[in-house]
Amino acid sequence: VTEVNPLICVGENVRGLLSHDNGRTLQGMISILNEIGYNVAPVQVLKAINYKVPQKRERLILVGIRKDIKNVEYEYPKPYRRIYNLRDALKKGDLYDSDVPKSDGATYPKRKKEILSMVPPKGYWRDLPVDVQKEYLAGSYYLGGGKTGMARRIGWDEPCLTLTCSPAQKQTERCHPDETRPFTVREYARIQTFPDEWVFEGSMAQQYKQIGNAVPVNLGREIGYSIVSFLNKYYETQEKPAELLEEAHVG
């Protein structure tokens, strides 16, 4: 930022940054931006499901405005009314003009697949028989907390839970609604609203990681539009003096 000195800069991170080190980490970032000449707009956590993303994912957005810019305020993108679900992501509809293309994907070990086959769509470990719950959760069974991500099968009519860097982690399971398997690479990408023609490089594990670490494309686009809107307002203020000068000259 110091080298390029843009009119506006944007950063994003997980919601947990708000409370990391009792908020001191975030405050440190804001202080550094202030030192190099940027005022920071009120930090907001945006929910991806409000921006045409079929996924319950939250991202903290930090926007810095160069201090020499006056009388123009940044406005975060306004949320859409419709909430998209997993069917919107993987089937032909408003988000995509075709069903999700076939691709490689991770698989479950035999016993894990047997256990997850007992879980209904939108269900999780509590839908298993008690003896299977204890087998699957092991020591976690006796700990507190809802553990709602364990043995979780996503339903067609709900947004997907937040995707992680791996599609089959025990604490954050994301099982396909009909087939007992993790989401494929292209299904992962659809849930993050990547276009089907977007190419991911590397091994399958690396591709999952690239997708899981990304800001959802549709959310990023809306933030981009909000930046364009801010810049347009700024440039309009810069044109007015020239327009007034021209009018005075004509008069």
Features:
Rossmann fold, alpha+beta, 251 residues, 7 helices, DNA Methylase, Chain A, domain 2, two-stranded parallel sheet, 2 domains, elongated
Quickly describe the structure.
The chain is of the alpha+beta class and 251 residues long.
Tell me what the structure shows.
It is a single chain. The chain has 7 helices and 6 strands, in the order E-H-E-E-E-E-H-H-H-E-H-H-H. By secondary structure, the protein is α+β, with helices and mostly antiparallel strands. The strands form 2 sheets. Strands 1, 2, 3 and 5 form a 4-stranded antiparallel sheet that branches. The longest helix has about 35 residues.
- Count of discrete alpha- or pi-helical segments spanning 4 or more residues: 7
Low-confidence stretches: 244-251
CATH architecture of the largest domain: Alpha-Beta Complex
What's the count of strands?
6
The structure class reads alpha+beta
Assign an overall shape: elongated
CA radius of gyration: 23 Å
- Could you tell me how far the N terminus lies from the C terminus, measured between alpha carbons in angstroms? 43 Å
- Give the biggest beta sheet: 4 strands, antiparallel
What is the percent of helical residues?
25-40%
User: What is the total domain count?
Assistant: 2
Beta-strand fraction estimate: 5-15%
CATH topology assignment of the largest domain: DNA Methylase, Chain A, domain 2
* CATH class group of the largest domain: Alpha Beta
| Mean of all residue-level pLDDT scores | 93
Element order: H for helix, E for strand: EHEEEEHHHEHHH
